[in-house]
Amino acid sequence: MAESPSVKFLGLLRVLLRHGVDFLVVGGVAAQLEGAPILTLDLDILFDNSPENLDRLLGALGELKARYRDPAGRHIEPDRSKLETHRMHLLLTDLGALDLLGSIGNGLTYQDLAGRTVTYELGQDRVRVLELAAVIEMKKYANREKDRAVLPVLQRTLEMKDRLS
Amino acid sequence: MAQSPQPTAAGSSPDEILPDESPDGVDLGLIRWTLSLTPLERLELLQDWVDGLTELRNGRVTER
Asked: Count of A–B CB contacts within 8 Å?
């Protein structure tokens, strides 16, 4: 079996930022940035699906040599029509697994959730991250086993953050 | 970057005794430590975990 590349979170974020992509970090990385110690093996982002942003996103995906994680091993690259029509894109890139989401939860888009974010500085870069309370709501909505498994940690972290603030 | 949990939580008084674990088994000490880190340090911590796990999954362990 081929070795699996380790995802490089900061590297992926920097490529997206360098291309000017409008996105929110969601999922496990958002939870970790918000202080919840959970493990995740990919970067999930919710992207703005405006035509201009799709251009920028496709530029970043080209640099990252993104292709779909296809169980049959076919080489299928994301393109504009797929980004416009599909809700979820599970990609493999030269910097590891990257999941692009056009909407999350009950069909919530980038615009719907842009007001529920925190901006964090990561060195020279600034990223917008879905706030922990919203991450918890999305996990509850998804309600998969892996989501339910991390909910106690997320909820305790939110309680502690509330006490500290 | 720090490599192990610190005993004192950010924002807590030195005399305050905080539980290390919640009734439902969540490691509160680890959460306190993670909250004491900067966002960049939190991301680096996650990267360390993923890199370590990937090395194990690929059957290769190096000195860290």
From this structure: 79
Set out the domains of chain A in order of their start, with CATH numbers.
9-164 (3.30.460.40)
Instruction: Give pLDDT tens digits for A54-88.
Output: 999 999 999 999 999 999 999 999 999 999 988 89
Residue B42 lies in a domain: yes
pTM for the whole structure = 0.88
What ipTM was predicted for this assembly?
0.92
Rounded to whole angstroms, how far apart are CA atoms A44 and A40? 10
Cβ-Cβ contacts under 8 Å for A69 (sequence gap 6 or more): A90, A91, A92, A97
> Distance, in angstroms, between A98 CA and closest chain B CA?
14
Q: Does B53 touch chain A (CB under 8 A)?
A: yes
- Is B49 near chain A, with CB under 8 Å? yes
What's the number of domains chain B is made of? 1
Query: Is residue B23 domain-resident?
Result: no
